[in-house]
Amino acid sequence: PPASASASASPSKPAAPSLSDRESSLASPVPAPQTPTPPPASDPSNSSKPSPLKLPQTLLSAAPSSKPEEPPPPTPPSPAQDKLDSALAEQKDLLKEFSKVAEELDSILKNLEASTFVKRLKAASRAQIQVAKTLSQSSLSSFGLTPIPSQDTEPLAQKAETRSEFVKLIQSDLDAYTTRKQDDRFKKILVEMQQSEVVRSLAQAKDKLQADLHGQTFHSAEYWADTLDRWAEELVAASQCKGSSSCSSESLPPEIVLKVMQALREEMQLRDQTREAEDAKPAIQAAQYSHTAKLLETKQGDIASLTRSAVEDILKIADAPAKFAKELRLLNAVLDVMKDASSLLAAPNTGAPTIAAETEAIELLLQSKRPNPKSGGGGGSSPGGGGTATAASSAALAHLGPGSDAQSNVAARPVGQATGRAGKEFPAEFKAGLDAYFNRLEATPK
């Protein structure tokens, strides 16, 4: 179910509702630090206030660090019993409110693959991993047959154009976005995509598969899976996530979080519709194109109104400017970008500048970050900040979606041996000599 608590949570302490979107990584994850076992949660002096509910973010594994491990900070003084009781009562109320919107939040979180550049590149990387897995299995089952049966690889060949088009749209949107933002980190990835000709290479997979060049396709798929994943990892640093969530211990009402997520979903759909309008522009009359752009402008205004409503709801909370200063600053920045998009659509303009503005709004609404690998549990917008919160569980919508991976570890893809399994195993030095012999034999001109 969309909202559920782990069985390890104490019945007297409700699970903290959290909202996070996780992406796995092909890079080696940072090992979790060894921390002493926390004291039992039943002792009020050892319990802390659950992590607050904040705006959602995309979480990736922590980046490797060359800095030596530092000892954990000393445990702060424990709160008083009355403060703990008050915090638990607030948490129960928050869970009740969260359960009312959990199903729709679940639905939105499961359809974010086409949202930010990080998630789109991660999705493209997973598609190439799937190609490599399928080719590895089909090659083993059909080794030595001429030609290799195509019933397993034909679906891959037919989808090659779709995979290539998906990456082409990423590159096109990245080109428009760098023109608008002038960020060297995004520009670096764009230049690498252009120089490596990733779109053309992915499109060639169909011809290679149909020509029975399965080995070349397999190695190409693994190469692009690693490269696309690396590009996604490098773009995490370009996120403005440090300024998107406050350090306040106060939770945002789930209804406000839902409004922000609805705005994100609508903005993603608007970007797709804007791109379709631009593609259809040469084939339709000018009046029809203007009418389409006007409809898109109206939809952008509706999304801005929904976002503005979330801001107004936050301001109704007592002492909101102090408690949620960063959230308000983020949503006001989103409103400014949406205003730019509306002005461009009114021109009418459905080209790259408008796509870039809509993309910037999406990037702001769902930013990427890395959790602190030295911290303990906790949910919400600051995972890892819970200290000794390992006794509590993160409920609800954490770790959802096709890219979710709680430990950010990628399972190894074992490659079985197709032939020669009945004979004796050659010593390692013999294998090296045989490899060198056959390599020289194949390199000899005939």
List keywords for this structure.
446 residues, mainly alpha, three-stranded parallel sheet, 13 helices, globular, disordered N terminus
What would your notes on this structure say?
This protein is mainly alpha-helical. The protein has 13 helices and 5 strands. The chain has helices at residues 81-109, 117-141, 154-181, 184-196, 198-203, 205-210, 214-236, 254-280, 286-315, 320-323, 325-346, 352-365, 428-443, and strands at residues 16-18, 21-22, 58-59, 368-369, 394-396. The chain has a 3-stranded parallel β-sheet, with no helix packed on it. The chain has a two-stranded parallel sheet with strand order 1-5. Helix 3 (154-181) runs antiparallel to helix 4 (184-196). The longest helix has 30 residues, at 286-315. The protein is globular, with a radius of gyration of 26 Å. The chain starts with 15 loop residues before the first strand and ends with a helix. Mean pLDDT is 75; it is low at 1-12, 41-48 and 376-411.
